[in-house]
Amino acid sequence: MLPEMGSVAPFPDLNLVPDPRVASSALPSTSAAVIAPPAPATTFRRPKLEIRVKSEPIDDPISEIETPDLIPSSPPSNDFALEPSPSSTNEESNVYSEFYRISEMFHSAFGHRMPGQGELQQAQQQQPLDSNSGAIVAVPSEENQFSALAVAAPNQLRRQQKRSNELVRVTNLSVEDQRYFRDIVRRTRMLYDALRIYTMTEEERRSGPGAGRRARGDLRAATLMRDRGLWLNRDKRIVGSIPGVFIGDLFYFRMELCVVGLHGQSQAGIDYLPSSQSSNGEPIATSIIVSGGYEDDEDAGDVLIYTGHGGLDKLHRMVNHQKLEGGNLALERSMHYGIEIRVIRGLKYEGSLTTKIYVYDGLYKVVESWFDVGRSGYGVYKFKLLRIEGQPEMGSTLLKLAQSLRTRALQVRPVGYLSLDLSMKKENVPIFVFNDIDADNDPLYYDYCPTAIFPAFVYSGGTMGCSCITSCHDGCLCAMKNGGEIAYDNNGFLLRGKPLVFECNNNCGCPPSCRNRVSQKGLKHRLEVFRSRETGWGVRTLDLIHAGAFICEYAGLILTREQAQVFSMNGDTLIYPGRFTEKWAEWGDLTQIYPGYVTPTYPSIPPLDIAMDVSKMRNVACYISHSTCPNVMVQLVLYDHNNILFPHLMLFAMENIPPMRELSLDYGVADEYTGKLSICN
User: Fold this and answer.
1) How far is CA 98 from CA 5, 84, 373, 406, 421, in A?
2) Which end of the chain is more exposed for a tag (fewer CB within 10 A), N or C?
């Protein structure tokens, strides 16, 4: 019996369709499928690897050298019977346990016995297939070897798993289902980012920055997660939307697309079910990446002319005619069966740490295909894709909008701005205030304070500083205060959350460029306070914010417990830092990868017994919305004094936050009606 989480529908057999062209203009039905009684499970054949794939331009020259060593060009696949990672000893604390449990339910619900040839003929005569069903199933293997994976010892890796060839579509998810799967994806991506940053830092510690070939943390992180069975959506191939992945989600690395199951190929531009696994020998495409690899591509946003694979040499020059095979044939077959295609765009983005970023732009439908002579004079296959209506705005469109707002805001949106700098030049970058909904201009009535204001006695103890000359290292005094390591990598990203982080102070000998001076430098990302009909006042970013990056401080007037008691006599409108959930413990938590990993507990600090008054003075952070599945976390930091009872509340990104995406924070206690603190309503 399936949990109440929407419908996960298997596709019927293509062989039951008298004429494939019957479904050529019909979008697959989104209604729940009727689930037949479960039958003995079967094992499916592994895809053949002789099919040529569409290779996109290599984002990094060393990818050709390092990728085959760490990640196969065709990522390994999973059996259905997934089990929790052996590194987890407590099922309730393992976020993946429920995911695997649901996967088992999918297996029991859809592991039907395949009908014989006689039954197929009888079914074809008596029960014609609905032309809107989008029928696809996998080929059963000759052997019935469908067995669960053996659980390895806690210090051993899981057996590498094959990727499933059973196609399903997930439909009718409730709001609770969407929130649940979003949290699964968020935690998986957070683990990937934290592991990638950690492995790169460890490599630099061993060999030194810039020594030899540059470390590929993205490949290493994906390999470790794959070997422990932590890649998502491998027990089923999902057609259409991936639960928990939203339109506009942004990725820095191709391998991260594989980790979440959005695109299953590490280098190929077309992801598809090969003909060797299809019941009628026809391949089916599920997703494509558009990144400018072919000169004949034409991208107009909602309308896309996509060039098929093949014909390129090692320098990505057209030297041969393309053939109707592999991914080309898969796109053509998806057109005839009305199968929707996930479209991911690879774009160059100013200020990005990588040469290219990838943004998910939603579902498209192939409506036309033809063979044409390309600009190079060689024959190419072209496919016209139209974006399905009713979806949220494309992420690539929002990227362009945010870029325009940063340079010419008034020309792009001449109406709605209440201020072009809420901070009145107290921050490093201006903060916009935008409201095109009503006449509320509440944020303009408060004095802006960029950093917290502490009682004078907090600074009486003085501070001790390191004697570093260029930049702090793991053995210096400041590193020892942090438990023996600097809290940030060379890019300023938080390596892992801690109860408290000590940054360098005015008594340190290191320069302002020291990597242990991050949050004290203030705001560097352009933010916008905006009015929303759903959440009231909120904050969104106009820049791309990398996971682990510092955003801003949560600032106001800090009160002692006694002061807070007096202040609250006339009504409690204070912020209590002790109520913020300890999301910092999730960032950098590698227990899923390394069984012996221990969440940092040094330095141990008592519960915060202070309050923050924002009734007269506040900063941009006070307008961030509350969420139990946030993209921002609080990390306590000290840099201008040593009183651990009065830390700064520094906000860091828990995931890659694309431009125009609203920031959210788990306050612990929020207004029960609006889900936000009363100060922001």
Assistant:
1) 13, 9, 51, 42, 45
2) N
Q: Which of 631, 621, 625 is nearest to 657 (CA)?
A: 631
Q: Where are the beta strands (DSSP E) in 66-199?
A: 167-171
Domains and CATH numbers, the chain: 7-398 (2.30.280.10), 417-680 (2.170.270.10)
Half-sphere exposure of 555 (CA within 13 A, CB side): 22
Buried b (16+ CB within 10 A) or exposed e, 531-558: beeebbbbbbbbbbbbbbbbbbbbbbbb
Tell me the whole-structure pTM to 2 decimals: 0.77
The rounded distance, in Å, linking the Cα atoms of 558 and 577 is 10
Across 19-33, 262-276, 334-348, the highest mean pLDDT is recorded for: 334-348
Quote the longest CA-to-CA distance of the chain: 89
| CA gap 350, 331 in Å, rounded | 32
How does residue 633 score in pLDDT terms, banded at 50, 70 and 90? very high
Closest CA to 304 of 246, 355, 345: 345
Per-residue pLDDT tens over the stretch 576-627: 999 999 999 999 999 999 888 888 988 888 999 999 999 999 999 999 999 9
For the record, the structure tokens of 639 come out as: 């840099």
CB 613 within 8 A of CB 567: yes
SS3 labels along 360-408: EEEEEEEEEEEEEECCCCCEEEEEEEEECCCCCCCHHHHHHHHHHHHHH
H or E segment and range at residue 481: helix 477-481
- Nearest-angstrom CA–CA distance, 429 and 420: 10
pLDDT at 304: 93
pLDDT score of 224: 92
Distance CA 204, CA 475 (A): 15
520, 503 Cβ separation under 8 angstroms: yes
Contact 45, 203 (CB under 8 A): no
